[in-house]
Amino acid sequence: MNSPQFTAEPSPSDADPYPHPVPYDVIVAGCGPTGAMLAAELRLHDVRVLVLEKETEPAPFVRIVGLHIRSLELMAMRGLLDRVLEHGRRRPAAGFFAGISKPAPEGLDSAHAYLLGIPHPVIVRLLEEHAVRLGAQVRRGCAVAGFEQDDEGVTVDLADGEQLRARYLVGCDGGRSAVRKLLGVGFPGEPSRTETLMGEMEVGVPQEEVAAKVAEIGETNKRFWLRPFGGGAYSVVVPAAGVGDRAEPPTLQDFKQQLRAIAGTDFGVHSPRWLSRFGDATRLAERYRVGRVLLAGDAAHIHPPTGGQGLNLGVQDAFNLGWKLAAQLRGWAPGKLLDSYQTERRPVAENVLDNTRAQMELHSTEPGPQALRRLLTELMDIDEVNRRLIEKIAAIDIRYDFGDGPDLLGRRLRDIDVEQGHLYGLLHRGRGLLLDRTARLTVGGWSDRVDHLADPTAVLDVPCVLLRPDGHVAWIGDDQQDLDDHLSRWFGEPAG
Fold first, then answer.
1. 233 closest CA partner among 204, 198, 201, 206
2. What 3-state DSSP class applies to 115?
3. Which of 110, 216, 255, 353 is 20 to 30 A removed from 293 (C-alpha atoms)?
4. Does the pLDDT of residue 29 top 70, yes or no?
5. What distance in Å separates the CA atoms of residue 34 and residue 492, rounded to the nearest whole number?
6. Exposed, middle or buried: residue 404 (CB in 10 Å: 0-12, 13-18, 19+)?
7. Which distant-in-sequence residues (6+ apart) come within 8 Å of 467 by Cβ?
8. Top mean-pLDDT range of 43-52, 188-197, 220-229, 360-369
9. Among 486, 495, 477, 473, CA closest to 409
10. Phi then psi for 379, rounded to 5 degrees?
């Protein structure tokens, strides 16, 4: 059932909190990291959330993913970082861009300047548990089959014939998003040109033999590795013979054949735990919002996994969208706040798609890309080049366009020291924050949405900053009237 193409402009009823009784404020399709994070962000503002996940059980295989600096900061902002760190392994913030091995630059602008490797099912479980603790409902084995939207909400049809009603629907249902397809939003880009096999299995030769061969081939082929995973198993990545049907998992024989073709041996691989394939398709949704239906995460953008940015990009989408959609539902959102989700996040995705395209070219074994790789490897010995690429992959270079002002305006503020300990500890509730070093400003009628910390000792080189719930700097200054204007811009009209 296709949804009509509604305008992204909010109708008058959008600003009226709960004008019609509906069971849910938001239905989120997909309980991966993006969907779970979005549900949690909405629940911080008492939004009634139902998460629908078509799979009945989590994925049966364990794939290690990396949380980059910006995502680690977001976890700290919501009090999740310690829990996440218990299940991950830290490594230096280096070697991300096209796998070019360079040391991490010194003095990265973050208190969490490292990469955290963590099993994908674990981060999904932790974020889902976080959302449920806050009051979100999660239903598994529920696939979205269709929906219709009107001026008051969205009626969602499930595959089993059940109908649900909500004020908004958000598709966080992956690269093959049913919500995006039903919405009729274009997904232009490039199809997969190459494909890579990935799996976990045991090998039948000594570890020294594996390591020597991998080191030899890895000089020119960055899409090939065998790495000890623990328990006698190896993580195996090898280029596929061609581009196949991603819905069909590869066989062990496919791995053996490609290992022999590239390495001259199949290493005696056996006893696979899981096998999968991924391509290098690169696509970006034409729109992130149509009326009361929105897209986030892989439903809005897909790209090759080089640089490990996909999960991070989706979680950061959710962080940007959550408080804005909640503000719309609670009735205090300024006119264009919800549309700023696309305005801010779609350019970020465009940049990620471009840098993954560049990295994939540098992975090619052809002479031209190999020459370019050698040149870039040399240039990355320059600290500023290395730093710029790390900041790009780690998403700490993002600056949203909030108009003219100091360079800090529109950027996220690092986790600085304040009287109460650390800044991010003050953002756990998902509210705005005025950090006031003058101790003479006030948030007045916005105190139901914005906290105020008067702290002359804060480690900050400007008088005062207004932070959005996602930690981005929305205002810098020391004038009360100017502050009030910006509080209205981001947090609507004052109460009372």
1. 201
2. strand
3. 353
4. yes
5. 27
6. exposed
7. 413, 427, 432, 433, 434, 435, 473, 474
8. 43-52
9. 473
10. -65, -30
What is the DSSP-derived secondary structure letter of residue 440?
-
Measured at the alpha carbon of residue 313, what is the angle toward residues 9 and 247, in degrees to the nearest 5? 100
* 3 in Cβ contact with 147 (< 8 Å): yes
139's enclosing H/E stretch is strand 137-140
Q: pLDDT tens digits, residue range 149-185?
A: 999 999 999 999 999 999 999 999 999 999 999 999 9
The angle subtended at Cα 433 by Cα 44 and Cα 71, nearest 5°, is 60
DSSP state letters, 84-96:
HHTT-EEEES-S-
pLDDT band at 242 (very low <50, low <70, confident <90, very high): confident
Q: What is the pLDDT of residue 61?
A: 67
Report how far apart, in Å, the C-alpha atoms of 332 and of each of 26, 294, 345 are: 17, 19, 22
- Token couple for 457: 């000792």
What pLDDT digit, counting tens, does each position of 415-441 carry? 999 998 999 999 999 999 999 999 999
